[in-house]
Amino acid sequence: MDSSKLLPLLGIIAVYLTGALAINIMDIDAAQYASIAREMAQNNNFFQVQHRGIDYYLDKPPLLFWVSALVFKVLGFTNFAYRLIPILSSLAGIYAIYRFTKLYYSEITAYASALILGSCQAYILMNHDVRTDTILTNCVALAIWQIATFRKQGGMSYFYGGFIWIGLAMLAKGPIGLIVPGAAFFIDIVLKRDWKSLFRWEWLLGVLVVGVVLLPYCVGLYYQYGAEGIYFFFWKQSFGRITGENSWNNNAPLWFQAQNFLWSFLPWVLAFGGALFYSLRTLIKQGFRLTYTQEAISLGGFLLPFIALSTSHYQLPHYTFVVFPLGAVMTAHFLVSAVKEPAGFMFKYSKISLIITAGVMVLIVVALASWAFPLTNILIIAVSLIVLGYVIFLFRSTQAPFHQLVLAPFWIGLGCNFVMNAHIYPQLLTYQTGSELGIQIASQKSIPLKSFFMLDVNPKDGYYLFQHALDFYTARNTPILRNANDVKIVKATSDTIWLYTDKVGIQSLKDTLGLQVETMRAYNKYHVTGITLPFLNPELRSTRTREVYLVKAH
Known about the structure:
Elements: H1 3-22, H2 29-43, E1 50-51, E2 55-56, H3 63-75, H4 79-104, H5 107-119, H6 121-125, H7 132-153, H8 156-173, H9 176-191, H10 195-198, H11 202-225, H12 227-236, H13 240-243, H14 256-264, H15 269-285, H16 297-310, H17 324-339, H18 345-372, H19 378-395, H20 401-428, H21 433-444, E3 452-455, H22 468-474, E4 480-481, H23 484-491, E5 497-502, H24 503-513, E6 517-525, H25 533-536, E7 546-553
Parallel strand pairs: 3-4, 3-5
Antiparallel strand pairs: 1-2, 5-7, 6-7
C-alpha cells in the first residue's frame, strides 16, 4: 500500500487508540461489561457468567467477557486492555468491508467504503464506549465478506470462515448476528432469481458449524438456567422485544433509529440518503431484478434489519450500528459514481451535503471545546488546526473529485473525534464519580479496601450511585450497604470505615447511628451518557449535577 493510502489508516488507528488510552470506561453498560470480565478473570470461571459474585448475568452472551478477561490476565485491569480486542476487531471489520466491496465494485470504491466505515461517528464511538455491539458488528462484516466470496468464487475455507464468524457474532449479541447476514444474502438471491443458491445443501452444513461454535455457551446456559436459558438466548432476548414477550420497553417511537442515524453516521449521513435513493432507483428501473455482477447484499442487509430493529419495544441508538458497514458500501458506491461526473448533479449534491455535515461537526466540536469544556492544550489545538486547514484545501474545486467527496469528509470525521477523544470525553468523565473515586483509591492505597463500602440508601433516585466503574477500577465488588443496620454490622468489625455515599447517606449515618462523619472529598456526579444542554452550559451545570462524597465514619 502506498503512503497516500496508508496515512488515512494510520489516522483511524491513532484516533481509536487516543480514545482507548485517554477515556475512562463509561457507566452503565461498558463499565458493567468490563467489571463482569474483570470478575471472570479473577475467579477463572469462564463457563458461567457471574455478576458481582452471586448474580448470574443472562442478558448478554459471553464473547466480550471472555476475550476481555483473557486480555486482563495479561495486561491487567486497564482502559486499554478492555478496548484492545474490540479495536482489533474493528480493524478486521474495516478490512472485511474493503474486501467485500472489491468483489463487486472497483478498487477505489472498496477503499472509499473502508474510509467511510472507519471514520463514521458510530464506529469511532463504539471503539471507546465498548459494548457487545463492537465485536458483533465486525464479526457480521467478516461473515458477509467470507460468504460472499464463497458464493462468487467458491472455496470451502471461505464457507467455513463465514459461518464461524456468524457463530461468533451470535456469541457477541445473539441471533442478530445471523439475522443481518441472512437478510443480506436472502434479498440478493431473490433479486437475482438465483433459486438454486437458496437451496444449496451447504447451508445446512453452515448451520452445523454455527451450532458447534455456540455449543459451549449453550451447555453453560442449560446448566445454569435449563431450557429457559436456551429459549432466552435464541428468542426472548431479541425477538421478544418485537413480540412483547421481553419486559424491556422504553416506548421508543418508530422513527427513533432514523433520528439517531442522523448523528451516528456523520459526516456521511446526507450522502447516504443519496446512496439509498440511488440504490432503490436502480432497483426499480431494473424491475427489481439484478444481474450476476450486481449486488443487493448491502441494501438488503442494511434496510431490512434497520426496519425490524426500529419496531422493537425497547431501543437504544447503538442497536442499528451492526448494519453500518453495509451502509458504508452503499455510500462509497454512490460517491465514487458521483466522482466520475464532476459536473453532474450527483457530484454537486454530494459535495454540498458533505460540506454541510462537515460544518455541523466542526461547529459542535468548536462549541464544546470553547464553551462547555474549554480547550487549552496547545498540541491538540495545533493538530486540530492542521487537519482543518487540510480539509479546507481538499474541499477546493481544484482538487481531485475523490479528494473532495471522500478524503475531505474523512479527515473531518477523524479530526473532530480526535478532539473529542483527547479532550472532551476525558473532561466529561471527571463527572463520572465511580471511575474518579475508583482510580483514586486504587492509586493512593491510603484506604484499606476491606474497610471501604458504598452506602446507597436511595437506589430508586435518578442519580443513584452506579457501582460498575467503581468495581472495575478498584478491581473488586464493592460491598453495597442499603441502610443504617447494614452500616452497624460492618462497623462492628472496624473502628473506622470509608464510604462512598450522598447527602441522604451522610444524614442517616449521623441521625440513626450517631457516627462522626468526616468528608474526605466531594464530587459533582452526573450520568455522562445522558448529556443535556443545561449540563453542557458551565453556568447551569451545577443545577444538573449531584454532590456525592467519600467520607470516613468512626
